[in-house]
Write a structure and sequence with these properties.
- The protein is of the alpha+beta class.
- Helix content is 64%, strand content 15%.
- It has five helices and three strands; from the N terminus they run ααβααββα.
- The chain has a three-stranded antiparallel sheet.
- The chain is globular.
- 15% of the residues are buried.
Amino acid sequence: MRIDAYMDKEARLFAVLSDPARLEILDALSKKKGCVSELQIKTGRNQPNISQHLRVLRDSGLVEARKEGRRVCYSVCRPEVKGLLELAKRID
């Protein structure tokens, strides 16, 4: 992979991670999988807002969705995400 292509990939990842709502959702999902209604309770955000951010996180390959009965549950699908979030919290 060319260096500039690698940097483009990194830049897209950091763009996804630049939104506080997405970080809050990722943080919640890094601890426990959940559906939109559970994420509403944890974050205080409304359903359309959470769904929009989950779509971005799914499109970026950070979150996966799995149907469980009538609900769709989301989970972090990259183990590196938890470490990345922990590292970001330690940086002042």
